[in-house]
Specification:
With about 130 residues, the protein is mainly α. It contains nine helices and no strands. α3 packs across α4.
């Protein structure tokens, strides 16, 4: 990943919005026109004084040819960790039946993990309750 992209990925929503708009050579007015909001609202988003609704985020993403995730989340908040990326790339090549099996296995592991966490919380609550 290029250094410029790394900096971009650690920006706030307002900074990412400004950067994306400028990379598309759009003025605030042009972006406002494409999204269907008043230019003052774009200025407020870019200043960090307001947060757009989900519908406006969708329209911004379309106007800027970016995903909503790119606008809202830092990369590390959405992408799988490096040690899982290769596995997910391979899974994407599976046929539908094998994808279904992989999804079911993953869902089972997630449920097991959540049950384990829940049991740990209950145990901690019991210990905490006896100490009061």
């Amino acid at each position: 990943m290029a250094f410029q992209e790394e900096i971009w990925l650690t920006m706030s929503f307002s900074d990412r919005l400004v950067s994306l708009r400028k990379s598309k050579a759009l003025t605030q007015q042009a972006l406002a026109d494409q999204v269907g909001v008043h230019v003052v609202q774009i200025r407020r988003y870019e200043a960090g004084d307001a947060q757009p609704t989900l519908d406006v985020i969708r329209k911004l993403a379309i106007a800027l040819s970016a995903s909503a995730d790119t606008l809202v989340f830092d990369e590390e908040e959405r992408d799988p960790k490096n040690d899982f990326k290769m596995q997910f790339e391979v899974l994407a090549q599976f046929d539908d039946a094998d994808k279904q099996v992989a999804q079911e296995v993953l869902e089972g592991l997630i449920l097991k993990h959540q049950a384990k966490q829940s049991a740990q919380r209950r145990e901690a609550a019991k210990k905490g309750g006896h100490n009061t």
